Amino acid sequence: MNANEVAQLIKRYADDVKIVGARQVFAVTDKERYIEALTALRDNDLKHLTTITGVDRGENIDVIYHIHCGESLLNLKLSIPKTLLEIETVTDIFPGATLYERELMEMLGVQVKGHPDPRRLFLPDDWPAGKFPLRKEAKK
Amino acid sequence: MTFIVPIGPQHPALEEPAHFRIEVKGEEIVGVDLRLGYNHKGIEQALSDRSYAHGLYLSARVCGICNSTHSLAFTRAVESVAGIECPDRARYIRVIDAELERIHSHLLWAGVAAHEIGFTTLFMLFWRDRELSLDMRELLFGQRIYASGTYLGGARVDIKEKDIPQLIRTLDKLEKSVKHYIDVCTSDRTIIARCSGVGILKKKDALELCAVGPTARASGVDLDIRRDDPYAAYGEIPFDVIVEQDGDVLAKVVVRLREILESIEIIRQAIDAMPKGAIRAKFPENVPENEAVGRTEAPRGELMYYVRSNGTNKPERVRIRTPSYANWPSAKPMLVGGTIADIPIVVASIDPCFSCTDRVTIIDTETGKSRIVTKEELRRLRK
What distances in angstroms separate CA B295 from CA B71, B225, B227, B318, one per listed residue? Predict the structure, then answer.
């Protein structure tokens, strides 16, 4: 699917859709629509979730789903406030998301509800609870 | 009743420590659990504490084998956030660098795979010929392993005209050997007995678990970033994406060996088509606020860098998704249903790095449950 087709498809579920460099689509979605958006992508035979990125933006944490769409790459961003760091799991839509969501939980403290195996992934067993290494406050 | 066989995390022959807990019923594997993180170096955080120029070198050190493609993916993302185009000659130098890396990585893997099935002669032969590709990296880029020919805005070194005849002669020699190895691997009784029909990853599982690279392509998934999202000069060089349908270990061997032949052909075309001119564009000190993704096809599959810049000379966030990380979930369907004796070759077939000693795992024979004892607990027990 090329970038224009992906942009057309995602328009219903996201705002601020822009195509960068002919092959990359960036879009911003919200908590109400992101599960619907990802399901729609899967149903259109886009089954390859490249990864999930978490970015600490101060007040919010951006969760970016990178989906490989054949000729293009969709970067679907979901911004969630630090006061309510909760998202639903997408492992039922993309089973390959298991490890990425576990990393998101331990590195940035985003709670992924409904995850089948919410153990730590990379951090050691004696790492203190509630300390998230990729948060901005962890740098101090 | 089932038993747990712990494998890992340390293994002197392979580079990435991972710990497997294999649940077995007699000889048959019924479940697999995985522990990662023994080698977590915190590079994502370290990259955002360093300038882009320093980050380039750090990104190359994420993985020794894949250093060229790591610095290329990092550069690709950073050049996108900065809005820099690299000169044409440099794009071809990057292709030659990346393909030489693929050749040496695939031959390294083939040697390890031969070693895992006890075929030491073949292991020696693969590694003998891998030396040829390492010599070429040294000739062109000055280093056998850490060649990393990419620089921000272009290439680190230029390819000299006088080195090209030797490169071509070596490629011819390599091509001849690899063709012979493909014949050997598809006809030798030992290899077929150990690899054919073993560790099968079905196409459905490969798609669902988002497998990448040769692991996915050996299961019939047609995915190659060089073609899907062309970078460097790949858009101008025609090549075939090698796909096999069987999904077993043998298919993964064949995919990788045939990919070496493609890589040799790509390098030949790149040498012919390489224009003359500058090799580097100026890279600004500070990069405006932006975000971008840079992907490359590493020898093990799709490699992704996400870079977010904030107007300074350091990135705000760098996210790295390496191909082996994406392929771990696929290890489970490949192992379940197989036997203990096949674990080394099946795990090696996704070209990660696995290990064979462990911390102590205790199995409660009444409940069948097991737990890992930490070093601290062991110390307490000793007292």
Answer: 11, 7, 12, 13
Residues spanned by the domain of B355? 3-38+328-382
Q: Render pLDDT for B318-363 as a digit per residue (tens, 0 to 9).
A: 999 999 888 888 988 998 998 888 888 888 887 764 432 333 444 4
Tens digit of pLDDT for each residue in A4-55?
999 999 999 999 999 988 899 999 999 999 999 999 999 999 999 999 999 9
Q: Are residues B19 and B131 in the same domain?
A: no
B88 and B212 share a domain? yes
Domain that holds residue A131: 3-139
What integer pLDDT is reported at residue B383 of this predicted model? 45
Helices B120-141 and B164-187, axial angle in degrees (round to 10): 160
Give Dmax (Cα) for chain A. 48
CB contact under 8 A, A56 and B319: no
The residue type at B291: E
Do B34 and B47 lie in one domain? The reply is: no
Q: How confident is the model at residue B12 (pLDDT cuts 50, 70, 90)?
A: very low
B33 pLDDT more than 60? yes
CA dihedral in degrees (B172, B175, B180, B184; nearest 10)? 160
Chain A residues close to B37, C-beta within 8 Å: 120-124
pTM for the whole structure: 0.91
* CATH code, domain with B143: 1.10.645.10
Rounded-to-integer distance, Cα B225 and Cα B324, Å: 15
Write the residue in A47, A55, A64 that is nearest to B208 by C-beta. Answer: A47
Q: Are residues B210 and A94 in contact, defined by beta-carbon separation less than 8 angstroms?
A: yes
Q: Are residues B32 and B93 in the same domain?
A: no
| Contact across the interface for B37 and A49, Cβ inside 8 Å | no
Smallest Cβ distance to A73: which of B44, B229, B291? B229
CATH number at residue B354: 3.30.390
Give the count of domains, chain B. Answer: 2
List chain A residues with CB under 8 Å of B208: 47, 94-96
CATH number of the structural domain spanning residue A133: 3.30.460.80
Q: A100, A107, A58, A101: which is closest to A83 by C-alpha?
A: A58
3-class DSSP state of B273:
helix
Closest-CA residue of chain B to A138: B45
B9 token code pair: 């995390």
The one-character DSSP state at B246 is S
Do residues B354 and B347 lie in contact, with contact meaning Cβ atoms separated by under 8 Å?
Answer: yes
B110 and B34 in a common domain: no
Q: How many domains does chain A have?
A: 1
For residues B338 and B29, the answer to whether their CB atoms sit within 8 Å is yes
Judge if B247 and B335 occupy the same domain: no
Does one domain contain both B87 and B211?
yes
Whole-Å CA distances, B366 to B22, B362, B370: 19, 12, 10
